[in-house]
UniProtKB/TrEMBL annotation:
Residues 2-197 form the Calcineurin-like phosphoesterase domain. It comes from the Bacteria. SUPFAM superfamilies: Metallo-dependent phosphatases (SSF56300). It comes from Blautia intestinihominis. This is Metallophosphoesterase. It holds the Pfam family Metallophos.
Amino acid sequence: MALWAMGDFHLAFSVDKPMEVFDPIWKNHEKKIQKYVTKCVKDTDTIVITGDHSWGRNLEECETDLKFIEELPGRKILLRGNHDMFWDAKKTARLNDSFEGRLQFLQNNYYNYGDYALVGTKGYCYEGKDSIEHFLKIREREGERLRISFDKAKADGYSKFIMFLHYPPTTIGEQESPFTQMAEEYGVAQVIYSHCHGRERYDDSFKGEVNGIMYRLVSSDYLKFRPERIL
Ligand SMILES: [Fe+2]
Ligand SMILES: [Fe+2]
């Protein structure tokens, strides 16, 4: 039994969105994902996929992409990324009902892995694309969603946590954020995030141990499409 993570599959089986325009590393990236996930992840393992699953704009356009994820080995837990238009955060329970036994969607809930609770939300950091007011509003809402995830796990008796975010936990230059503070408050063992693509973004936030917490970047291109073993 092992816990794995990787994010940002950016699949596009039903829409025209070639990823290699951003970097040649993305050429046939879905084949690399399939190859390495199948090689690493056993049927008894769990893999958390940290958002940006599909370029499809609705569930219909994402169908083939989600099917691709479904057919990968192991238990698949999905986190919401900024490009996951098919996933209305408020309707996560409905997604969990329709994909029961196939995919699990992590939002305002938690999943267990041994004696760990896997908690998470999309998160947010400032990328200069919106006003400070909007950034603060989204970050606060994401903080509330993360706390719901933690508190549900805590109420069920969990005291060991692995925390998943789509966005990096800090904005460039920050030494801490509401997300790192919450990770420290609940005593999480690891914080896993993705979203950052390309060499110039890989050092946007924490990697390695900070204040006793292990931070890991698991963007698929950063990992060269090989899932990262978390536990
Ligand atoms: Fe992404
Ligand atoms: Fe993203």
